[in-house]
Amino acid sequence: MHYVWKHRLLPLGELQTTDGKTVEVIDPGLHNRNAGPDFFNAKVKIGGTLWVGNVEIHQRSADWYAHGHDRDPRYNNVVLHVTGNADTDVLAEDGHWLPQMELEIPAYLTQNYEELLRADQYPPCYKVIPDLSPLVIHSWMAALQTERLEQKTEAIRHRAEQSGGSWEDAYFQTLARNYGFGINGDAFEQWAQRVPLSAVGKHRDNLFQVEALFMGQAGLLEPQSIPLRYQDSAQQEGYFPKLRNEYLYLSHKFSLQPMDYRLWRFLRLRPQNFPHIRLSQLATLYHSRQAGLSNLLECETVAALRKLFSTQVTPYWQTHFVFGAESELNTKQISAASKDLLIINTAIPILFAVGRHRQKEELCDRAFDLLEQLKAERNHIVEMWRACGLDVKNAGDSQALIQLKREYCDRKDCLRCRIGYEYLRAAR
Description:
By secondary structure, the protein is of the alpha+beta class. The protein has helices at residues 2-6, 63-66, 107-111, 113-119, 134-162, 167-179, 185-193, 197-200, 207-217, 231-237, 239-254, 275-288, 293-298, 302-308, 336-358, 361-373, 380-388, 395-409, 418-427; strands at residues 15-16, 22-27, 30-31, 39-46, 49-60, 78-85, 100-102, 320-322, 325-326. Helix 5 crosses helix 6, helix 9 (207-217) packs across helix 11 and helix 15 (336-358) runs antiparallel to helix 16 (361-373). The longest helix has 29 residues, at 134-162. The protein is globular.
């Protein structure tokens, strides 16, 4: 069912919800392989009304309740529940009933299901890649690299507009989002939007107060955010109540409201990536004043940027991963690999975006130069392309191939892809 929805291999007849409204699938969304709804940012017309949101898929409607989605706020923005058997109505956590559509799987797909799954792990054109000329590959990779930076620039520009034209705020939100390292990216960006830098700046010289504000706005100073088995020890240790009392004072002073702590994800996360650890590292970085926007724009080398993003946790978190749960002593400095990811996903896009905004081509050129100096990222997308025969030399190449996979292959947009063109031309 995921495969049919993802690739829009839908029945030829008219699609309808269980209550008889017509359904038109404009964009199935992006497949989510982590916790949360199955497809993000889908676009569907239901009864003539366009809805943009998430889609959840189950074999039976009753699985919605079996999986606890009716108690999870992350599923409140599901706009369509797709099911093989609509055996019950489904209710979201915020109390609204969801439209449902029964999806019939075409017979030929059922027969070839296993074969389709195996083929889906590579792009359909992979067989022609070894035969492509270096010129075709290089020119397409360069275009994809620029396209990805332009896309990130648009996101940064939008954050600046939403922040009243503040590029410092846009930078902070971009940095925070990338501190989520994928899984908690959305939560970190939402958190950053709730952190008023003008208010926090008045207490920047006091690391304890900065950490209290950061943890508090993340909802992690709410007593119920602590796992039940650690609540007593968290209170007895004393650090949690001290932070909470400080946050209550500061939140009253600045009229702050924390985000919902349930938006943070812990499933399949290594402890060093827990939100508590990342927030403490960010608090130390912010307190040090070393990673401001003006400092970043002055960095001309990878070494300078690695130094700029160097940080560690405060003393309490050297022996904890969550409140009340002790761990072995570790300064939990941000790793070299994590710093390089922050350079690729934060520093370089910010340089490019500010360069475009201020019409300073030297900043844009520096962004491309830095990408060529950094090693290629190591993830399943890059390894897939390597297995197809593409040579991935640096971070510029890996960023280009991530763009190719997400914006072309996943969307089956082969007609706009230069590799797809070469494939079609050879097929004739």
